[in-house]
Amino acid sequence: MGQQFLLAWRSIWRQRRRTLITVISIAFGLFFVIALTTLEEGVIRSVINNGAEMQAGHITIEHEEYRLAPSVSLVVPQADELADELEKLSSVEATKILIGGEGVARSGAGAFGIVIAGVEPSIERERSPLADKIVEGEYLDETDAKRVVIGSVLADRLNLKPGKKLVIATNDFDGELVEQLFRVKGIYRTGTDEIDGALVHMQLASARDLFKLPSGSATQIGVILNDLGRVASILPQVEGRLADQAALSAHPWQTIMPGVAGYVVVERSGYLIMEGFLIALVLFTILNTLLMSVTERKKEFATILALGGSKGALRLQVFFEAALIALLGILVGGLAGAYLAYYYSLEGINLQELSGGMDVDVAGVALDTTIYTLFSVPLLLLLCGAMFIATLILSLVPVSRVGNVSISTLLR
Amino acid sequence: MSESQNRAIVETRNVTKVFGKGDIAVHALRGVSLTISQGEFTAMAGPSGSGKSTLLNMIGCLDRPTSGEVFLEGVLTNKLSGTKLSELRRDRIGFVFQSYNLVPVMTAIENAEYILMLQGKSAQERRSRVRDLFQQIGLGGMENRFPNQLSGGQQQRVAIARAVAAEPALVLADEPTANVDTDTGKALMDLMYQLNEERGVTFLVSTHDPTVMERAKRLIRLRDGQIVNE
Ligand SMILES: Nc1ncnc2c1ncn2[C@@H]1O[C@H](COP(=O)(O)OP(=O)(O)O)[C@@H](O)[C@H]1O
Ligand SMILES: [Mg+2]
Questions:
Q1: Which of A187, A263, B10, B184 has a CA 20 to 30 Å removed from the CA of B55?
Q2: What ipTM score was computed for the predicted complex, to two decimals?
């Protein structure tokens, strides 16, 4: 076996140029796959996390009927206490208590339908991309009773500036029509009209007061995890905490943000198909090289068989040759790709600068302008391993042909 | 002559070989009967296409005859399995090819040791057997060169070393001097005679080369797949 390995190593370097070209094509292919995968997964992670932080967490707890017919009458009682308890779970980074409802905002300039979000300002300040996108005035504070932050589109429509007043009308917990006066504290702009024209943030207590919710209740609790990958394992634990409250249910982000979930599927399939083509191309190159090298050496193999050498030993040698070429390519491409992924996972890439202005939102979630690649060792190992195994499987074609030589034509 | 020198290494009985079928059938051998005894140096001459290589293929267990029998050291080889034939070639026959056929990724000494390696001999034993041989055949200092760093004559010397290193019953050489110049060819023949005389190696050498035929102790002439005179 050591002998076959040595011969394999020498054999691949007898065709130095061809080996280098093959190694480079594997390296380049893998590098590209790593670059694309870590970037795309970075974008996907960013969209999901942004959505989760801006909306209702990676896991959302709400009244079991809320999904089908959202209404402020369907609440999570004692939301504050439940949230405190959920925060003790491992992998839970934070919880956000939300009151969501619909209403109409009115000023002297007109009236427009809005989406009301009662939030905890301290948490939003820290996490929500909205708080970073204030263009006029300021975001909310814990003490800001009866104040709102609105989007730039709504501000234009209602002709509002920070400090100006507006009236918000809605139906309360009991279904009664109510209206209250609010003052604009800040104006944000995400760049997405559907958000900027509709979403209105107010402090949780103000929302409770507006909707006349029972004290301590809310329409949703969002659970934010420190690792997107833990959703599936944490969800049952969260459900466990709800066991004594039959009317509540917990949903993963895919249920709460179906648009984002759909986007993830489309985006992932898109890049995987592209990578599939690239890998197929690289594998074709490898197959070609290996077959060529076996065909060229028919006489060498025939000599060995004539002298009494075994087909098995020859097959092992050709297998080692393929493995060595693959390993070299994967080493080069893998290290280069890993470095790239690592670098941009720290530095980030300004996608808008890069593409000259791409979509700023995905399924209603504002996209970060700076994307951090997903640097994950298991992911990198998976990509490298897949490439290696694909090459080894491919090498079975030339390996199987090693024995197809005629020893009776050696003497002529 | 001692008894051992008369021992038949090869015996062919009425061996024929037909390539192809019907109209395109080529009768490469038309009933060859031949005995080669231990220690002999036999040259086989004949024009191109007369069946020299085909006969060597039959004797060397690289191909099977269409009819007739081939005995190697008394064993009928026609019906042996591929694996058995492979072992027989490894252990009992040395091959020298017209175009050397060294393994390009092995050094000169690794090529010469190759059969011993296949036989599972230890590295130490291999070295000790081949080192002297290398000196004897004028390859001292060339041990670690690869075939492409050797001249044609040197490569053929390595091939001869490979063929005799494991002390086979018989060495088959198919036009071993055809690819080298006259002087080199003569030197290679000298080497084979020397190995025949000093080590008692049995040789069967096919050739075009008149100088080889002159010097051979025994000469077989082949024409149209038949032995025409001895
Ligand atoms: N594999 C083969 N298929 C068909 N014909 C062959 C094959 N090998 C040899 N022959 C034919 O058999 C005859 C003898 O060939 P060969 O033994 O190579 O002659 P020599 O070695 O004396 O030149 C030739 O006519 C040759 O064309
Ligand atoms: Mg011939």
A1: B184
A2: 0.93
